[in-house]
Amino acid sequence: MASKAQKKIGLAVLGWVVALLVFFPLIWMALAAFKTEIDAVSSPPKVIFDPTLENFNAVFERVNYGNAVFNSIVESVGATLICLIFAAPAAYAMAFFPGRKTKDLLMWMLSTKMMPAVGVLVPMYLIFRSTGMLDTRTGLVIVYTLMNLPIVVWMLYSFFREVPKEILEAARMDGARPRQQLLLLLLPLSLPGVMSTALLSIIICWNEAFWSINLTASNAAPLTQLIASFSSPEGLFWAKLSAASLLAIAPILVFGWVTQRQLVRGLTFGAVK
Amino acid sequence: MVATTTTSSQASHGGVRSGRGVDTRPLIWPSVGVLLIWMIIPLALTLWFSIRNYKLDDPSITGFAGLGNYSYLLTDPSLTTALLNTLLLVGGVLIATVVFGTLFAVLFDQDFWGKGVARLLVIAPFFVMPTVAALVWKNLLMDPVNGLFAFITRSLGLGAITWFSDMPLFSIGIIVAWQWIPFATLILLTAMQSLDREQIEAARMDGAKAVSRFIHIIVPHLGRPITVVVMIETIFLLSVFAEILVTTSGGPGDASTNLTYLIYKNALLDFDVGLGSAGGVIAIVLANIVAFFLVRTVARNLDA
User: Fold this and answer.
1) ipTM surpasses 0.95
2) Do the Cβ atoms of A42 and B146 come within 8 Å?
3) Residue predicted with more confidence, B244 or A171
4) Which domain holds residue B251?
């Protein structure tokens, strides 16, 4: 019979081995980002090497990398802000003035998320082509907004419901109009929830790789699409690929870590809390 | 667009409908309106195109196809392959994520030194964009010449595995599972927190071994969250696309072409709008079968 202390050490070892194994591809990628191209493909693989920043310089010298970073930020933040503007009033109304149809409406919104993107790929492509929206930021922001709107409404709704009704009642008695209640009272009161909703929406947009690949080419291409273009043979520089990838995933990884708890609610539509 | 704008402006002028002194329609309608447009127009167009002869590279082909696109697609062996590949990919990844997700959730629910940081490392792959995940695995790890796996297997005297030509679907499955095991872990870890600790403690006192505590208390407790994980993942796994595009482009042949990739290929690489749309309709029908069950589970939870 193992003693309690032994058990605890065993558990820690097991936990850390599993964690490092799962995380390993990212460590390996991060190491490659600081290697020279020759070191990156050397066999046996080099664990000890002279770190260099030349890959990062090379990546930034490619004009389209800066553009892709800019596009990723504009498109994910832009879509998220528009989503919030549409969703906040709706979530407010559904949380505080639920009618007979509120539940059906929420379920219907959820069901729009079930439509597989590829099912409407053809019409979306043709609509974009005929309206000149292919490879434009506006086009991708519109698609991302519509894609995330149901999740944002759901998450805000579930956070708003946790605000005590009495507070809003009191404000109403003092003559606060719905818009004032929403902007001056509800949003500040549920700020952590609103923030994590926004972060989840940004994460989803940032990592979206179906519409970005099919609807953009260069001008409006975000990082997902740019990195996909590295798969062609001439783009096969492992160290530079790793450097570009590391920069592309680092900020969003931090966002994900910060919001992990609230994220569960958004990802499961409140089915797991 | 016109219809919804009219409705919402009428609502704002038209006075109070809800009995509680607030007209909620102008608040709700903008969201509902844009979603309705997003639902109806592309869906209607997909249905319309699916019964048309329409090729982007040949304007002379036009007119009604009737059910021609469907019958072509349904008798085409590439659809059967794609459906089978989709089934294998979704099924395999689901099994892997549920098994590892459950085990990891139990492991990282225990108290050990540095558990918080270890948890962050485990959930990290979920936040990695699909194109990065796929290219890192394809090149740095699975490349048969310079990849790390090739080095390991050669050192063991096994020779290098040519992952993407010998077992393309399995290799893609590994990458996708790597991304989704963290998702399952995260959800189930959260669900573990509502587990009744006293019940576990009581079972332990009564002499129940760890394995039987796991089978008789933890697994039943995780039953519903696992259902949720399975359904949400199914929706996303049916649409796996970028991972295939950047690794195998559906090949060799169509060995790693799933339904999503087949539709993309028909529509945007072979320029056959009619055929792509018919495939789209099939994808929508499949996804809706899953969605039906998901929505029911979530709806039940809304009352609780």
Assistant:
1) no
2) yes
3) B244
4) 69-133+167-303
